[in-house]
Amino acid sequence: MNLSSEQIKDIQKIRQDMMKNRVKPSVAFTENGFDKDKYMEIMKQKRDNMLKSKAEMVDKVYKILTPKQKEQLKVLIDLRENRMVSMMDKRMNFGKNCNGRR
Predict the structure, then answer these.
(1) What are the φ and ψ backbone dihedral angles of 29, each rounded to 5 degrees?
(2) What are the pLDDT digits (tens) for 21-78?
(3) Which of 9, 28, 53, 90 is at a distance of 20 to 30 A from 66, taking alpha carbons?
(4) Is the pTM of this model over 0.85?
(5) CA–CA dist 72, 59 (Å, integer)
(6) C-alpha distances out from residue 66 to 55, 61, 71, 72, 86, Å
(7) Which residues, 6+ apart, have CB-to-CB distance to 25 below 8 Å?
């Protein structure tokens, strides 16, 4: 996408900031034990916050792109989505192509 050095620095900063805010499951472990409830709560929060965090990161990165780069990003996203759909189609049809053998 021909990012400028300034854009690369900005994106790296965005990613670093997002990583700093993550709660790590290791806090549920102590020298003498494991807090199962704390671990489960952390993992639930991680799952719940994943979508929100990713959307925030994409929003911040998108704002630093030029109009041309935004067009290129859209094309890349569409290509990736098409590849994913194609892979899923192949997986879904795998059993049908094996004459019942798995």
Answers:
(1) -105, 135
(2) 777 888 889 888 999 998 998 888 887 788 888 899 999 999 999 999 999 999 999 9
(3) 53
(4) no
(5) 16
(6) 19, 11, 9, 10, 30
(7) 39, 42, 43, 46
